[in-house]
């Protein structure tokens, strides 16, 4: 008999557990609370009870001010989308007009998907919290930084970069408006800015300052929505991977030790719970994953296409480079963080392969079979699984579509050194 065999009568866990589970500080619900409250300021995820201590207070109701606010914003974005469609019918389609249409249409779809998610969020958060409560008795926290702290750091970085990107866009457009106003001899630079930025609206109706502010507000809300989709997927991926990481830490602590059958049954049961949770999460957010990858792929290709056109002015060049870099970084971050769920789900395999023959039993065999055959990952509505290999696939797809766009693009490259181009609306 081996001396390192852990007998079933032991009362102390192999891995010291975390402190007593406190849902008000240790749960996904508490970690997501400030992020959801921020999102609701921009009409996203209209679920009630977010500021309560645990997930049992969460609820969704159609009769709430949050739903009313979301509906008003949705109506505004829908109106902008209609204006874009009317402009394309009236003046023809080019890559610039199509990009604007895709941007607002994406916002519409995002609003619908997050309202649907809000209806399912109370049940999902409660299921997740019950699993966290159960795992606390057996798994210790791997990272010294709490999940809530990591969420705040990631959110701050993404939102700060998004704010800088949007500010650079406004500055670039304002410089163009100044040049155009100077060329026309018009003193109303703000009016020129709004009319040049939103020609789909002000070519159909008369301009006034309050209309310009209203349209720009809708544009800001749409920009946040576009960035929040990727941020949300990153945060959910971090939380899921963290649960697998805690289980893997527990398995690593008994590497090459002979453990009893009941211990392996318990570990396999925990792994199975995590696999079930991942599938449940995926069933709720797979459409959001597909939307994120599809829109990011489109905008990367379009920005690459626009890079072939001459860019006038140092501010515009800086904005374009920063915007394109931020888009690439955000897309890569979503891909790698979502792929980390799949990566963590495979890590028990090497440990199970090294189990000694004295403790290798039916439970270890079943555990190893599930790890090596079960594909645990987030998906885009089952069309693809988000793994590390997907990053290379997306990169290859971008190159392929870019070659097609360059070959068949009908947009003429305009010499932007002429000041009259600042007044041209494409």
Automatic annotation (TrEMBL):
<keyword id="KW-0807">Transducer</keyword>
<dbReference type="GO" id="GO:0005886">
    <property type="term" value="C:plasma membrane"/>
</dbReference>
<dbReference type="Pfam" id="PF06151">
    <property type="entry name" value="Trehalose_recp"/>
</dbReference>
<keyword id="KW-0472">Membrane</keyword>
<dbReference type="GO" id="GO:0033041">
    <property type="term" value="F:sweet taste receptor activity"/>
</dbReference>
<dbReference type="GO" id="GO:0007165">
    <property type="term" value="P:signal transduction"/>
</dbReference>
<keyword id="KW-1003">Cell membrane</keyword>
<keyword id="KW-0675">Receptor</keyword>
<feature type="transmembrane region" description="Helical">
    <location>
        <begin position="67"/>
        <end position="86"/>
    </location>
</feature>
<feature type="transmembrane region" description="Helical">
    <location>
        <begin position="153"/>
        <end position="177"/>
    </location>
</feature>
<feature type="transmembrane region" description="Helical">
    <location>
        <begin position="318"/>
        <end position="339"/>
    </location>
</feature>
<protein>
    <recommendedName>
        <fullName>Gustatory receptor</fullName>
    </recommendedName>
</protein>
<feature type="transmembrane region" description="Helical">
    <location>
        <begin position="98"/>
        <end position="118"/>
    </location>
</feature>
<comment type="function">
    <text>Plays a role in the sugar gustatory response.</text>
</comment>
<keyword id="KW-0812">Transmembrane</keyword>
<keyword id="KW-1133">Transmembrane helix</keyword>
<dbReference type="InterPro" id="IPR009318">
    <property type="entry name" value="Gustatory_rcpt"/>
</dbReference>
<feature type="transmembrane region" description="Helical">
    <location>
        <begin position="213"/>
        <end position="241"/>
    </location>
</feature>
<feature type="transmembrane region" description="Helical">
    <location>
        <begin position="285"/>
        <end position="306"/>
    </location>
</feature>
<comment type="similarity">
    <text>Belongs to the insect chemoreceptor superfamily. Gustatory receptor (GR) family. Gr5a subfamily.</text>
</comment>
